[in-house]
Design brief:
Radius of gyration: 36 Å
Number of helices: 8
CATH superfamily of the largest domain: Ribosomal protein L4/L1
Number of domains: 2
Largest sheet: 6 strands, mixed
Strand order of the largest sheet: 2-1-3-6-4-5
Helix content: 25-40%
CATH class of the largest domain: Alpha Beta
Distance between the termini: 96 Å
Number of strands: 6
CATH topology of the largest domain: Ribosomal Protein L4, Chain: A
Structural class: alpha/beta
Shape: elongated
CATH architecture of the largest domain: 3-Layer(aba) Sandwich
Strand content: 5-15%
Order of helices and strands: HEEHHHEHEHEHEH
């Protein structure tokens, strides 16, 4: 009997065999290659407003995601960097004048004073006046580019960008005003309706002839900023300026 009891205890204590299911071996997922740059097409018109073909636009510049907080930050930095900060007033230690006490401390019946350069006297120093300071702010280059491309994408989505073939544009202001008239961007008084013209590198000489029209700003493509793009209602891109802005993007000059 004792042997049977011992055998039963050993059977109960022995670990039960568990059936193990076969595990499928999954092959590691290969990283997909980066998607190729998607391009968009836009219509090109002549300076007379007639369709002349199309231009291929890089999606990274004209089809980027619009980041409005970044645009606002870039505009704030741009405006801050325009401030000169040259206003400067002299304190009592900087103005010219005698350092002698103007009258004795007691016995005159008048208020006690030090020297004549004090702020209470005419010609004395200024208290809490403006001082020379640097208002400039810095923005990383990548953020500048991202803000510019975001602004261009926002304006392109709102159909505010026109691509023009510069054939016929000369160093005469008359040709610029004629182009704006044919594109319905100028009034009868000759004032443009907040127009920005972006010149390519080969036509940079047109800068002088285009800046004489009120309400129009002419910018070289390498000088283009987020603020300039946002503040204008209409943007005219010369045909070759698209390629130039892509080149400056690759060379990191923006």
């Amino acid at each position: 009997m004792a042997e049977k009891v011992v055998k039963k205890v050993i059977k109960k204590a022995a670990p039960k065999k568990v059936a193990v299911k076969a595990v499928k071996v999954v092959a590691p997922v290969k990283k997909t290659e980066k998607a190729a740059k998607v391009s968009m097409n836009a219509e090109i018109v002549s300076i007379k407003g007639v369709k002349k073909g199309s231009v291929t636009l890089p999606e990274t510049i004209f089809g980027a995601k619009v980041n409005r907080p970044l645009i606002a930050q870039a505009v704030r930095v741009y405006l801050a960097n325009q401030r000169s900060g040259n206003a400067h007033t002299k304190t009592r230690s900087e103005v010219a004048g005698s350092r002698k006490k103007v009258w004795r401390q007691k016995g005159t019946g008048r208020a006690r004073h030090g020297n004549i350069t004090g702020p209470i006297f005419v010609g004395g120093g200024i208290t809490h006046g403006p001082r020379t300071r640097d208002f400039s702010l810095d923005l990383p280059r990548k953020m500048k580019k991202a803000a510019l491309f975001s602004a261009l994408s926002a304006q392109f989505k709102e159909n505010k960008i026109v691509f023009v073939d510069p054939e016929g544009l000369t160093n005469k202001t008359k040709t610029f005003s004629g182009m704006l008239k044919d594109l319905s961007l100028i009034d009868k008084k000759g004032k443009a309706n907040r127009v920005l013209v972006v010149l390519d590198k080969t036509n940079a000489k047109l800068f002088r002839s285009g800046r004489n029209i009120e309400g129009m700003v002419v910018e070289r493509v390498q000088d283009l900023s987020t603020y300039r793009v946002i503040e204008h209602k209409h943007i005219i891109f010369l045909k070759d300026a698209v390629g130039d802005i892509e080149y400056t993007k690759e060379k990191r000059k923006i």
